[in-house]
Amino acid sequence: MATNQEKPVHQVGKRKSAVARIYLRPRAGEIGLIRINGRSLEDYFPRPTLQKIALQSLELTSTQGQYDISVNMKGGGVSAQASALRHGIAKILNEIDRTEYRLTLKKAGFLTRDAREVERKKYGMAGARRRFQFSKR
Questions:
Q1: Which residues of the chain have pLDDT under 50?
Q2: Which terminus has fewer CB within 10 Å in the chain: N or C?
């Protein structure tokens, strides 16, 4: 009976058009591994700031290295993907132990999906709000 190897907990994190499907299970080895689309965290997010954003939920709850995390990432840019990963991990930690982690994660704002999206471009304009240059003559 492998009580440590239970079914992985699944949750989805989102930011802009980035979607992170996250599977979390208790660590199997010495340290918790994080795999994103089959690559390591350092390989997928080479910039240290993005790595820090992605792991903020784990650092805040002092659970870094306790879990093996597997992520399927789609869409968006690298910054939005890192934020989507943070959001998904926070939702999983909240699901695992609601009483202990919820207050700290909620206070940091990690459980709330950042709803800001890119505004669409309108016809007759250079961008969403920018107009073409006005010419009097």
A1: 1-4
A2: C
